[in-house]
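Task: complex structure prediction.
Instruction: return structure tokens for all chains below.
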Amino acid sequence: MPSPASNWLASARAVFTKDWRCELRSRYALNAIGLFAVTTLVVTSAALGPAGTNSSLAINVLPAMLWLILLFAAAAGLPRSFVHEEESHTAIALRLAAPPSTLFVGKLAFGVSLLLGIEALVAPLYLGVMSLEVASPGLLVIALVAGGYGLAAGSVLIAALASQARGRSTLFSVLAFPVLMPLLLLAIELTRNAVAGDAAGPALPQLLLYDASVTIAGLMLFPAVWNP
Amino acid sequence: MSSVSLSFEGVRRRFGRVRALAPASGRVSAGELLVVTGANGSGKSTLLRCLAGLLAPDAGQIEHLEAGTALSLPERRARIGFVAPDLAFYDELSAGENLEFFARLRGLPVARGAKLLERVGLPADRAAGALSSGMRQRLRWAWALLDQPRALLLDEPFQNLDVEGENTVRALLGEHLESGGLAILASPITLEVSGAVSRLELAR
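Output:
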């Protein structure tokens, strides 16, 4: 007899697998995020050139540019995970079949894996076209993973809240500003430290705290907004 | 098989200034079918959504008992089988994959979906997005019966079905009632149904 915990995990895994299976067949979010990321990467590199050779630009501007590219790429694809369930009326079956927490965790896992995949593609390209040398590559990877998780978790949480409203895209933008702003500032600071070869400093624990807070807030808030 | 009953008293709902459902009351027990009729806009679908736990009523009491125990709202959602015109599935997945997903979500054996699809006469490998409206209705029935629910809430359950499809789902409904389940069926037209049937007419 499976335990409640293993049933819960199996349900969350079912949502994760279903989302990836649907995404690989429709390629909606993959195309939206990928095209947006590549387009902004090309525009940035064409406008700034190999800006990494300028140490002032490399430390002060390029980390912020990288996170802006990731922010808009995430905004182009991640909100769909919940909005599509409402618009296509599949949310009715989900509401009756799954506890809200398993649904949130399954969708969170999908969003995080999608964004980390995009980061794995975009970050090396960005470093290459900008000729940006990173003094602490390990810290950069930590910044991308912790920041990417927070960005995906924040986006999924906002998408879950906004999907229940009528003006979904407007509400997503309004909610995204206060929720994602602290994350972006911390991720940019950590990335700057990685580029400059400085220690992680307080940005890393604060970023991890943000990630934990958004996850817990999602688990607590989502059942209330998902069900009547 | 455990006994089951579903009763509701004074359930009403408004959407803003529009009265979607005037106070409605009824009760249905094991082996019984309650047919809810009324004109378009009288609140049949709203009542079924309230009973399923998909919509919170503005007022009224709903009590779903199984083996003498009242079910909580999450338990009620999990224990009912629901068929409705706007119940949709994932177009990117086949009919079989859709049922497999929901079986995994509910911790059920995945083989149960294949048996139900065979019973309703639906090819498991056909993409849900490529199903006709009648085939979608058959998939809704298969989905509703996946967890062998004791209570079925059926909103226009014979819509778009051909003669063979309607005979199949009527047989499924009959077996459900004979096995001690209950059902509430909403329809804007008077339906011929046999067995222990009570009726509730909603006023607009």
